[in-house]
Amino acid sequence: MPELRVLGIGPVSLNTMVYEAGGVALRDSLPRMRDFGFTYVDLNAWRSGDPDGMSSRGRRELRESLRGLGLVVSQMLMIKTRDMASSERRSAPRPWTI
Questions:
Q1: Which terminus of the chain is less hemmed in, N or C, by CB atoms within 10 Å?
Q2: What are phi and psi of 44, to 5 degrees?
Q3: How far apart are CA 96 and CA 98, in angstroms?
């Protein structure tokens, strides 16, 4: 499937919040995004897309699903950003890996 473009300028991405706000979990939204012609996904770290709520296996399955569908994460919207730039080690958030 050709990638979705706007005015022939460049590829378009879709934010997963569109589905999460409608009650559709990340796992179920990814195939829908691909079916609509999207290649790039703006991953929203909210609800089912929150890495803190995923197990290691869940994050691995997410990576495999993205690869299998040919989707690319173009950016990640991080909601829990408190103290990210803190020099205090104990107040810095633990790193996320997807």
A1: N
A2: -100, 120
A3: 7
- DSSP secondary structure letters along 26-89: HHHHHHHHHHTT--EEEEEESGGG-GGGS-HHHHHHHHHHHHHHT-EEEEEEES--TTTT-S-G
Q: Give just the sign of the alpha carbon dihedral 92, 94, 97, 98.
A: negative
Q: Evaluate if residue 72 carries a pLDDT over 90.
A: yes
Global confidence as pTM: 0.71
Kindly report the number of other CB atoms within 10 A of residue 73's CB atom.
15
pLDDT in tens, 12-61: 788 899 899 899 999 999 999 999 888 999 998 888 888 888 899 999 99
